[in-house]
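Dear Dr. H.,

I hope your travels went smoothly. While you were away I took the liberty of generating a structure for the chain from your last submission, since the lab meeting agenda had it listed for discussion. I wanted you to have the full record in hand beforehand rather than looking at slides cold. The sequence, exactly as received, is reproduced here:
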Amino acid sequence: MTSETSARAYEDRRGEPAERVVRPTEEDEVAAAGSELLGGPMGRWAWGAGHWLTPVRVIALVAIGMFALGMAQKAPCYDWAWFRGANSQYTHACYSDIPHLYVGRGFADDLVPYFDRLSGDMGYLEYPVLTGLFMEVASWLTPSGGSMQHREQMYWMVNAGMLMACTAVIAVCVARTHRRRPWDALLVALAPAFALTATINWDLFAIALTAAAMLMWSRSRPLAFGILIGLATAAKLYPVLLLGPLLFLCWRAGKWREYGVAVLGAAASWLAVNVPVMLLAPEGWKKFYTFSQERSVDFGSFWLIISQRTGKSLDVDMVNNLATLLMVLLCAGIAALTLTAPRRPRFAQLAFLVVAAFILTNKVYSPQYVLWLIPLAALARPRWRDFLIWQAGEVVYFLGIWMYLAYTMSGEKHQGLPPEGYQLAIAAHLLATLYLCAVIVRDIMMPERDVVRRDGSDDPSGGVLDGAGDVFVLGQAAHPPRHAAPLVEGPRVEWGTRQPGT
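The corresponding predicted structure, in token form, is as follows:
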């Protein structure tokens, strides 16, 4: 049996269209070279019909294995560094919020998030409602006996188990989003920054919901997509940003009904989660939003570089306004790109760009925020070279922030990375992210360079947008050059005109 027959059998067993699975080793020189470590590219007899080890299962197992390696990397902190002074957890680069917030946010004392006030100045839990529920469920599953150190360790372990389940969901959803390209999800499974940052905080929960939403949209299920995006936004704010580029994609394709269903689903699910807490504990509910507005310029942002280089503290309100203005301008640019590109951009490309814009302009960049982008990057630009360049910058930042914190916490000894070195680490993260944004924008403007579209595909993650014709375009997109002509021709209109019946 040939590899093509095997791939078709693999799809047929799931009741989906029989299509040949694209393998990275066949089109990506870095993937082909890397496969030599495992004996070379996959042979024609690999994964024959009926084999239980399908690509999706392989990817899920690899993702879980890398997650376990990330847990092992936290071993020095788990054993002692979390509990014997702050500096050791930074010099070993194994810091996690989870054990510290078990005590610091009242879970060890059985306080109810949003309803019970915390001791000190914090007031209430500063996380969105669904993440607060995730944290609370983990505290219910944590054994109550033993010393506080043991309980903190168990709380981290319980959360790690729940986040490992989220990791498997993310890997499976990304692998299934592009029907013909499941192996692109190996970018997620093998991402070094994923393993290093997975258990720092609870972001993987929202990312799993977002990945499931992307899968539902790729299957032309806008209501399920909207419900999942609403739930993801109830766990972390960034998923709601995906509705922005989707608006302009649906505008260009004339898919207003599907977009409206998605927005209504998102609003309904977000309200279903938030309204009870909003009504019964309004002060606790709004803490996340007031905290985000009131926090000062913090780690990882270019705002911090400006503050440190000038030696001046930046006014919080001024930074909030400027960051919002920059974000609005970048979103306007993404909207213009969507409506003027020679071919309608793919949903994953724009999703990456809008979340990256939020990260780049934000006044804080926690190291785990890279997790937001990794699944989107695998769908938007599945090229190993570009992905690894970006990941290298993120790993540099991951090490840089802990070494900088070690420097600030070591007193007069100054053991670690000084501010100038930390600024270089921030620059590495910013430039690496901008690089990946640049190649994605190039793919949009020169669709023949888009590796996903080389086989004649339009938008495998686009659902109702995949293969749809344009009904509204701006500028030169109405008369694309020959090399950028769409593979699927559809009715087109100039600005201010409409096709009959559209």
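Two observations you may find useful: Residues 166 and 205 are 6 Å apart (CA to CA). The chain has one domain: 54-484.

With kind regards,
E. W.
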